[in-house]
TrEMBL record:
Protein known as: ABC transporter permease
Family according to the record: Belongs to the ABC-4 integral membrane protein family.
GO molecular function: transmembrane transporter activity
Keywords: Cell membrane, Membrane, Transmembrane, Transmembrane helix
Top-level taxon: Bacteria
Domain ABC3 transporter permease C-terminal: 284-401
Keyword Iron: no
Species whose genome carries this gene: Ornatilinea apprima
């Protein structure tokens, strides 16, 4: 029996039992759909994380007060003097720029419109360290800092909420906690980051925030952003920062009273979460494919029983054992292949839906279904059909013609 003939006969057999065939492949459909959705959403999440890191800068370090992993007594706050010490090229040769920041979630209003945003008191070097660019206007300069100027730059999310536009905003006056500030620029959109939206922000001079908006002790800062000389020197810069702060905070033994995060730390955390998600979906897919495979085996055994006389007649007319084997393996493979193709379509629909839901919740994920995922799903589903079709096909091929013809 030729492969073409076996294929046509298998199609005819499946077509004669449409409902049974459809129910049989349901497990394969669910399993393949889960695999496709898992790979697509995983790739989309990875692309989003990579894009977020590129937008922030792969050589950026975050320094916070307090130890996030161990309990530490008598924690010293980070100060402007700490930030200045980190800028010392002799103590920290692998540190390029340092930007101390104080921040708080405050109310911003304009012409009856109101929104809340993260207000950051920053220095002129902040734009370079955080990789911010402006779409219009100018950035905070040294004169603004010295004069404690009432000026602000706003992110596009704030612009959308207050002005319902992103252009021609420079020169407008907004109020931060009731105090007037002249808008001197609008930031280019950057999207989300490890700490939330980078577009729902307002930047004001550090000295202005310190004296009028965010009540802190004179020297205290909330976070110090440090830019390493390159992505390759992040580890060296981290060690230098730790050594300087331990010396300044007089920590000779015991854990640090500060925490240093790098972008790689956030990537590893995100990969861990994605990995758990992948394992979960992989388990669902595996169980579904197993159930689908068992379903195919059961239905093929039923088919062998129903067609015992047909098998006996074919053998009596000269059909070889291999012909019967090929016929039933072709049927089981076609069942799983059709299930795989339907599962690919359903998986695409699921991943598209996940992307739409994520976008609606301001978490942009663009699921990407690659050719490798489609080929993997197709080959894997076909392999399931072959594997679970071996026993029924072998049973059919081993039937004795005389006994088969006697079967009622």
């Amino acid at each position: 029996m030729s492969i073409t003939q076996a294929f046509l006969e298998a199609l005819e057999s499946l077509n004669a039992n449409k409902m049974r065939s459809a129910l049989t492949i349901l497990g394969i459909v669910i399993g393949v759909a889960a695999v496709i959705a898992m790979l697509a959403v995983g790739q989309g999440a990875q692309d989003t994380i990579t894009g977020s890191i590129s937008g922030i800068g792969s050589n950026l370090l975050f320094v916070f007060s307090g130890n996030f992993q161990e309990e530490v007594r008598n924690v010293q706050e980070l100060t402007l003097d700490d930030a200045e010490a980190l800028s010392d090229v002799f103590q920290a040769p692998h540190v390029q720029s340092v930007a101390p920041v104080i921040n708080s979630d405050l109310e911003i209003t304009f012409a009856g419109e109101s929104t809340r945003a993260e207000v950051n008191g920053v220095t002129p070097v902040f734009a370079e360290v955080r990789n911010y660019t402006i779409s219009e206007g100018e950035f905070i300069n040294q004169d603004h800092l010295l004069g404690q100027a009432s000026v602000a730059l706003i992110g596009v999310e704030v612009a959308d909420n207050l002005f319902d536009r992103r252009e021609a905003i420079t020169g407008e006056t907004i109020r931060i906690e009731g105090q007037p500030f002249r808008v001197i620029g609008v930031l280019e959109p950057k999207g989300g980051s490890s700490f939330g939206s980078q577009d729902n922000v307002v930047l004001v001079p550090f000295t202005t925030a310190q004296s009028r908006l965010i009540r802190r002790s004179r020297e205290r800062v909330d976070v110090i952003y440090v830019q390493a000389t390159s992505a390759d020197t992040v580890k060296l810069a981290t060690d230098e920062i730790a050594q300087i702060l331990r010396s300044r905070h007089r920590i000779f033994l015991g854990p640090d009273d500060f925490t240093i995060f790098s972008q790689q730390d956030f990537v590893e955390t995100a990969e861990t979460i994605t990995g758990v998600f992948t394992i979960f979906l992989g388990g669902v897919a595996g169980i579904s494919l197993l159930v689908g495979g068992i379903g195919i085996m059961n239905i093929m055994l039923v088919s062998v029983t129903e067609r015992t006389r047909e098998i006996g007649l074919r053998k009596a007319l000269g059909a070889r054992k291999a012909d019967i084997l090929i016929q039933f393996l072709t049927e089981s493979s076609l069942l799983s292949l059709f299930g795989g193709l339907i599962g690919i379509g359903l998986g695409w629909l699921l991943s598209f839906t996940v992307g739409q839901i994520a976008a609606a919740n301001d978490t942009p994920i663009n699921p990407a279904i690659g050719l490798n995922a489609v080929l993997l799903a197709t080959l894997f589903s076909t392999a399931v059909g072959l594997f679970f079709g071996i026993y029924p096909a072998n049973r059919a091929a081993n039937l004795e013609p005389v006994e088969a013809l006697r079967h009622e």
